[in-house]
Amino acid sequence: MDTAKLLSEAKKARAMAYAPYSGFSVGAALVTSDGKIYRGCNIESSVFSPSLCAERVALAKAISEGEKEFAAIAIVGAPSGEEPKDPCYPCGVCRQVLSEHVDLKKFTIITEEAGKAQTCTLSELLPSAFVFEK
Ligand code: THU
User: Fold this and answer.
1) pTM of the model
2) Is residue 130 one of the residues assigned to a domain?
3) Which of 14, 30, 53, 59 for a ligand 1 pocket mutation test, highest count of atoms within 8 Å of Cβ?
């Protein structure tokens, strides 16, 4: 998996963030098992609660195009107008939503710290995911 390419796609997505309320722009790049990339950015709302995280925007784009198998997601976030330097990990809601669509032990989260890629699995970030038997 090309982590540098995915982080670069996440940065492109971050440039589209609509984050006038928090002033914190996030970009995500979700890659399918066969290598297709779906980008997402955070989209805030003046009534706050409907605000969307970058990760869930990317996931919704992919699922609505029929994608079902995912390998990894790269995420970058920082105050709008600044270059990201600290790693940006998915929030608890996004971890749970992603968990329903991926293999927890294999799906990789890619973040960047001081220009260096860091990777971990979703099961490391969400060790006891809620599972609802369908
Ligand atoms: N945000 C994301 O898009 N993804 C994350 O992983 C963390 C937080 C957004 C939500 C909100 O628009 C802003 O960042 C500040 O929380």
Assistant:
1) 0.97
2) no
3) 53
Question: Please, which residues have CB within 8 angstroms of residue 118's CB and are 6 or more apart in sequence?
Answer: 87, 110, 111, 112
- CA of 128 from ligand 1 middle (Å) equals 22
Given a cut of 90, whether residue 59 has pLDDT beyond it is yes
The verdict on residue 84 lying in a domain is: yes
Residue 48 near residue 37 (C-beta atoms within 8 A): no
Check which CATH number belongs to the domain holding 20 and give it: 3.40.140.10
Secondary structure of 80-93 in HEC code, one letter for each residue: CCCCCCCCCCCCHH
CA 41, CA 90: separation in Å to the nearest integer? 12
Catalytic residue annotation: 55
Q: In this structure, how many other beta carbons lie within 10 angstroms of the beta carbon of residue 107?
A: 21
Number of domains in the chain: 1
Any domain includes 92: yes
Residue-number span of the structural domain to which 35 is assigned: 3-125
